[in-house]
Every structure is written in structure tokens, then in C-alpha cells.
């Protein structure tokens, strides 16, 4: 039972640490991953505890009797203590029988002191039952030759096993949620990177057309809102958030700073820094700087596209090899069949 109590303590410590912020949820599946881990582990521990409580070992200090079954022989395991000292595990077989092979093994090998004591005890129990000669029951005596015997059924370990399995399943769930979170972060990173050139070009054109930075952000957000059926894009969603923040009273510089931090990429942080500097100091070269940034972004996009193309070609190498094997088989198998069929 102490194993289940320790598991409860571990789950409680994990929950408290998560709620207090001592254990960050990022990287290990987020809030959902932690919640699933706690739920699965807790459910498994409760079920395991119920099994352990229901199958705990019973102690028979006044002897015990086994009912003889009509189905044939059966064997049960008991822990036995002699005068308070544990003598070990004793297998009681009803009805008693011993194969010639077992007799030969006992004669051919030397028994240790512990094994000899168990053998002697088993023989004493057998003699005790011979004296009883009860056709219905097999007896485990509470005293033999002045020595007090205490019998105990072994504790059922299926509860601990079930708890361990559920803990393993909870860890698997946590790892899977962590990997899913990493995939989502990577997809978001790549999406932001791919959207940046188009975004910066739109922004540059609007600024060069005479719009203020704030109006340019609002124009891009409005154009994005009109395309309702379009799949949500992270960069444009962040621009909408910037517009909402400025409309709710957040200063422009603070909104741009938050925009760069939320995006988390160097390109977006650079853009946010340019916008904040333009607000604080003013810059007549703002349009030129944005244009240079736009050109660099498109060059970076081209390089990224080339890298993705090379990666796709590498991934296609294995399917192409499989197709080559299939084509060779289609060409060669009929030739072999016709050659051997003709001979």
C-alpha cells in the first residue's frame, strides 16, 4: 500500500508545482499534457490501490484448512513463519504427490540449510495430515513439535503492476503531447517565416503610399478580415491583435513591442524595433529602411524555398528507388518466365 501512497504524493507534488509555476508546462505537452498525465496516473493508482486492498495477504495464526477439490490436484503458495521467524515460501500441493524426477533431483544435488528446513517442514505438515486422514480437508497446523507456525497468503502484486502500467501510459501520453506541441511550434515558426516577405512588402507599399504605420496595420488587418474563408495565418492574426490592443488604449510603441515578442522571430523583432524607433525619434528614411528589409526578406524566402526543394527531392529518393525495383521486376519476370518456359 505504501507504493500507492508514494504515487499519490508524487502526483500531488506535480500538481502543486504546476499550479504554482515551479514546473513549466511548455515543452512537456502544455496544460493539456500535464492534465492528461495527472488524470491517467491518478486513475491507475486508484484502481491499483483497490486491487491491492482487495487482494492483500491474510494471516492465519491458528492454522488453516484447505478444502480438497474434486477437479484434481492443485497447488497454493503460503508464507510460513516458525516461532515468529520467517521461514520463507512453502508450496502446498493437494493431493500431495512427488514425481520420480523431483526425487532424483533432490538426491543428486545438495540442499542448502534453508532448503532443508523447508523440506523438513513440508514433511512434518504431510505427516500431520496423514494422522488426520480427513478426506475433505487438508490442514495447515498452527503448531508442530512445540513450534508455533503462522501461515500467510502472499500479497497480490497485480495492483502495483496496474499502477505501474498506468504510470507508463501517462508518461507516453505526456511525451506524445510534448512532441505534438513541438510540431505545432515548428509549424508556427515556419508559417511566420513564410508570411514575413509578403507582409513586409504590403506594409512597405502602404507606408510609401503615405499611410501612417498605425493606418497600415489597420488596413492589413481589415483586408485579412474580409477573407473569411481563408485558413488563419499566425502573422496576420498577430497584426489583428496589435490593432485590438491599440483600440483598447495600449500605446503604439507597447503594442509593437508585444507584437515582436509574441512572434518570437528575429525578423519580426527587427520590424518592431524599426517601428518603435520611428515613433520615438522619427525617421525620414523609414520607407527606405522598410524597402531594404523587404528585399532581404524576399531573398531569404528564395533561399528557404531552395532548401525545401532539396529536402523534398531527398524524401522522394526512396519512393523512386521502390518504383525502379517494381519496373525492373515487371520487365525481368516475364523474360525469365519465357526463358525457362521455352527450355
TrEMBL record:
<keyword id="KW-1133">Transmembrane helix</keyword>
<keyword id="KW-0812">Transmembrane</keyword>
<feature type="region of interest" description="Disordered">
    <location>
        <begin position="93"/>
        <end position="118"/>
    </location>
</feature>
<dbReference type="GO" id="GO:0005886">
    <property type="term" value="C:plasma membrane"/>
</dbReference>
<feature type="domain" description="Type II secretion system protein GspF">
    <location>
        <begin position="203"/>
        <end position="334"/>
    </location>
</feature>
<feature type="transmembrane region" description="Helical">
    <location>
        <begin position="316"/>
        <end position="340"/>
    </location>
</feature>
<protein>
    <submittedName>
        <fullName>Bacterial type II secretion system protein F domain protein</fullName>
    </submittedName>
</protein>
<dbReference type="Pfam" id="PF00482">
    <property type="entry name" value="T2SSF"/>
</dbReference>
<feature type="transmembrane region" description="Helical">
    <location>
        <begin position="35"/>
        <end position="55"/>
    </location>
</feature>
<keyword id="KW-1003">Cell membrane</keyword>
<keyword id="KW-0472">Membrane</keyword>
<feature type="compositionally biased region" description="Basic and acidic residues">
    <location>
        <begin position="94"/>
        <end position="104"/>
    </location>
</feature>
<dbReference type="InterPro" id="IPR018076">
    <property type="entry name" value="T2SS_GspF_dom"/>
</dbReference>
Amino acid at each position: 500500500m505504501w507504493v500507492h501512497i508514494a504515487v499519490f504524493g508524487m502526483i500531488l507534488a506535480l500538481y502543486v508545482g504546476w499550479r504554482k509555476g515551479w514546473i513549466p508546462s511548455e515543452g512537456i505537452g502544455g496544460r493539456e499534457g500535464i492534465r492528461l498525465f495527472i488524470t491517467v496516473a491518478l486513475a491507475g493508482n486508484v484502481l491499483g490501490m483497490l486491487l491491492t486492498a482487495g487482494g492483500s495477504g491474510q494471516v492465519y495464526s491458528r492454522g488453516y484448512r484447505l478444502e480438497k477439490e474434486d477437479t484434481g490436484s492443485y497447488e497454493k503458495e503460503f508464507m510460513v513463519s516458525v516461532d515468529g521467524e520467517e521461514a520463507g515460501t512453502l508450496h502446498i500441493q493437494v493431493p500431495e504427490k512427488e514425481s520420480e524426477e523431483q526425487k532424483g533431483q533432490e538426491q543428486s544435488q545438495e540442499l542448502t540449510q534453508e532448503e532443508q528446513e523447508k523440506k523438513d517442514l513440508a514433511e512434518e505438515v504431510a505427516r500431520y495430515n496423514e494422522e488426520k486422514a480427513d478426506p475433505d480437508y487438508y490442514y495447515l497446523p498452527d503448531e508442530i513439535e512445540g513450534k508455533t507456525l503462522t501461515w500467510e497468503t502472499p500479497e497480490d502484486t497485480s495492483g502495483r503492476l496496474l499502477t505501474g502500467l498506468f504510470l507508463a501510459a501517462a508518461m507516453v501520453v505526456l511525451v506524445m503531447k510534448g512532441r505534438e506541441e513541438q510540431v505545432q511550434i515548428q509549424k508556427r515558426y515556419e508559417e511566420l517565416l513564410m508570411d514575413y516577405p509578403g507582409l513586409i512588402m504590403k506594409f512597405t507599399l502602404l507606408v510609401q503610399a503615405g499611410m501612417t504605420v498605425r493606418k497600415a496595420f489597420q488596413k492589413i488587418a481589415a483586408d485579412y478580415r474580409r477573407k473569411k474563408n481563408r485558413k488563419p495565418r499566425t502573422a496576420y492574426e498577430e497584426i489583428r491583435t496589435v490593432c485590438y490592443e491599440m483600440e483598447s488604449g495600449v500605446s503604439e510603441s507597447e503594442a509593437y513591442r508585444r507584437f515582436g515578442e509574441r512572434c518570437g522571430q528575429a525578423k519580426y523583432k527587427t520590424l518592431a524595433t524599426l517601428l518603435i524607433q520611428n515613433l520615438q525619434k522619427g525617421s525620414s528614411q523609414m520607407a527606405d529602411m522598410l524597402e531594404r528589409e523587404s528585399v532581404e526578406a524576399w531573398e531569404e524566402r528564395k533561399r528557404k524555398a531552395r532548401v525545401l526543394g532539396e529536402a523534398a527531392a531527398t524524401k522522394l529518393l526512396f519512393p523512386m528507388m521502390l518504383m525502379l525495383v517494381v519496373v525492373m521486376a515487371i520487365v525481368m519476370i516475364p523474360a525469365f518466365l519465357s526463358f525457362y518456359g521455352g527450355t
